[in-house]
Amino acid sequence: MVQDPTGPAFNAAGASLGNVLPKHGVVVLVVDVVDSVDLMRRHEAGTVSRWAAFVKTARSHVLAHHHGEMVKSLGDGLMARFANVPDAVHAAAALHEYLARDNAALPADEHILLRAGINVTDAWSDGIDLYGSGVNVAARVATLAGPGETILTAEARDEVASGVDIECVDLGLCYLKSFGGGVRAYRAGPAGARPQVLARTAEAALHPTIAVIPFADRGQTGLSLTVGDLIADGVIDRLSRGSSIRVISRLSTAPFRNRPMDLGSLHAYLGATFVLSGGYALSGTKLLITAELSTVADAQVLWTERFTGSLDDLFEPDSHLARQLALGVHVAIFDHEMQHVSTQPLPTLASYSLLVGGINLMHRSNHGDFERARAILEQLIERHGGIAAPRTWLANWYVLGATRGIPGHGAVDADAALAASRSALVRDPTDAKALAIEGFVHCHLLHDLPLARQRCLQAIGIDANCALAWLYLGTINAFEGKGAEAVEATRRALDLSPIDPQRYYFMSLGATAELSAGNDARAEALARSSLVLNRMHSSTWRVLTIALVHQNRMDEARDALRQVLALEPDLSCTSYLARMPNGNLPTGQAWAKALAAAGLPD
C-alpha cells in the first residue's frame, strides 16, 4: 500500500531524499475491508458499486466534516491524513457508522465491514501520497482491529484524553509483521461484535488457549448440569496444572453449555484457540464419555475419543477419566503444533506454535530437529523482544545440548546460556522458570552446584508451584548425595506436572534422584517409564544401566549400555566424569564405576 523511503526504490536518492520531498508531522488513518477477497468473490458487482459510493461519501462529507483529507483510495481500503488524533478517531467512527447503516438492509454475507488503524508520525509527502515507516505502522495496526473497530498506536493514544475525547482500552504489546519489537496498541471505544484483539499481548500469544465446554447429556438422564460440569471441571483442573496451555475458566465457558457449537463466538468472546466439547451417557453407575477437540480458526477436528469408567471416579480428586481426557488433549494439541512447525515457514506461524514447537524439538534426538529448535527460539526473540520466555528456553537449549553430549556443545556454551537467561531475567526478574533454568546452567555448564541451588530456591520462593525449579533442585541434591531431599523434590515436581508434554524428562531426572537415595528398583521403574515416552534420551539409559548394575543384573545392564553407546558412541568413563557436575563427588565416582562395570570404556 505504502512505499517506504528506506526501501530499494529510494536507494538512489539516499541522503538527498529530505531535500527532494518535505517531511512533516501527520496523523495517518488507514481503513480496509475485512475479508475483502471473499466478499468480492461472492458479490463482486454489488460490492464494487457500494464501495465506490462509500468512497465518494467519505471524501466529500465524512473526511471533510472532520477536517481530514483523502490521500488515496484502493479497491478495498483508503488512507487519510489529519491534523489531530480526535478528528481521525471521530472520522473512523463515522465511516463505521455509515457502513453499519448501509449494511442494515442486506444479508450478513454481503456486509462491508471496516477495520481502522491510526498512527502519529513524521512522513514525507509529494503532495499526493505519504511515505515512511510510520505510515506502514498505521496500516499494520489496522490488522489488529476487528470488524467495526479502530486501533491506535501509543503515539496516537498519547494525543487524546481518554474519557474526554474518546474511550481507550489498552491491548498491551502486540506483534505486527515486520515489527519485531512489538507495538503498544489501544482500542478506541468498545470492542466490536467480533474483536480481533482480546488479550493479544506478547506473553499471551506464546500459549495456545483452550475452552472446555461442559459436556452434554446424550442419554437424557436429567443429570446433565451435574455430570457434564464434573467432567469439564476435572479436565480444566488437570490442564491448569501445567503452564504450556492457557485454560479458560469454566465460569466463562458455562454459558455455552448445551448450545449449538459456534466456534466464531468462542473465539470472539473467549479468545480460544482450541475447544474441547463432548457428551456422555449413563447406564447405572457406568459412564460413557465421547470427547472432541477442534481448532477454532478452521473447525478442524484434531482428536476424538471414547472413554468408559465409573460415575464415582468423577468425584475423586485424582480422577482417572479426567486425567485420560487431559492427556489426550495435550498430545493432540502438541502433535498439531509440531506438524505446523515441521512443515510451515517460521514467519507464517503463530507465536504459540513456535514456542510449543521449539520446546518439543529441543527434546528430539535428531540433531537437525535440535538445531531447528534454536532457530525457532531466535525467531521468537526477534518477534517478541520484550518478554522473557523465548530467552529462558534458549538457555535451556544450551544445557540440553551439553547434557546429551551433542557434538559442539559443552562448557563453551556457558556464556551464551547465561547471556540468554540473564536477558530473560532483565525483562522479568520474577520469572521463576528463568531462575530455575539459570540454576541448571550453573549446574551443568559451570558445575557450580551451590549457586545452582541458590537460583532454584529463589525460583521456588517466587513460585512454589514451579515444577522445573523443584525438578532441578532435586537433581542438584542427587548430585550432592542428598538422596532423601532429592527424592522429595523430584516427586513434588512430578506431582506438579502430571500431563507435561515432556514428562519423560521429569521421570528421567526423578530416576536420578531415586538412584542417589539407593532406591535402585524405583530408579529402574522410573527410567523404564521414561523410555516408553522417549527411547532416544541417553541420560535415561545411563541411569537404567547404573540401577541394573547396583542390582547385580549384569546382562541387562550391558544391554542398556549398548543403547547408551548407540546414542553416544564416543562416551567413555573419562568424558562422562568430565562433563557431569558431580564428576569429582562420591555420587559421580560411584556412577562412573557402575558404568565401567557394565562395559563403558575408560
The gross shape turns out to be globular
By CATH, the superfamily of the largest domain comes out as Nucleotide cyclase, GGDEF domain
Structural class: alpha/beta
**What oligomeric state is this?**
single chain
Largest sheet: 8 strands, mixed
Could you explain the architecture of this structure?
With 602 residues, the chain is an alpha/beta fold. The chain folds into 3 domains: 8-200, 2-Layer Sandwich (Alpha-Beta Plaits); 209-339, TolB, N-terminal domain (Rossmann fold), CATH 3.40.50; 465-598, Serine Threonine Protein Phosphatase 5, Tetratricopeptide repeat (Alpha Horseshoe). The chain contains 25 helices and 14 strands. Helix 11 (320-343) packs across helix 12 and helix 13 (367-383) packs antiparallel against helix 14.
Question: How are the SSEs placed, and which strands pair?
Answer:
Layout: H1 17-20, E1 23-33, H2 36-42, H3 44-65, E2 69-74, E3 77-82, H4 85-103, E4 114-125, E5 130-131, H5 133-142, E6 150-153, H6 154-157, E7 168-176, E8 179-188, H7 202-205, E9 209-212, E10 216-217, H8 224-240, E11 246-247, H9 250-253, H10 263-270, E12 274-283, E13 286-295, E14 301-310, H11 320-343, H12 351-361, H13 367-383, H14 389-403, H15 414-427, H16 432-444, H17 449-462, H18 467-479, H19 483-496, H20 503-516, H21 520-533, H22 538-550, H23 554-567, H24 573-579, H25 586-598
Parallel strand pairs: 4-6, 9-11, 9-12, 10-12
Antiparallel strand pairs: 1-3, 1-4, 2-3, 4-5, 6-8, 7-8, 12-13, 13-14
Helix pairs in contact: 2-3, 3-4, 8-11, 11-12, 12-13, 13-14, 14-15, 14-16, 15-16, 16-17, 16-18, 17-18, 18-19, 18-20, 19-20, 20-21, 20-22, 21-22, 22-23, 22-25
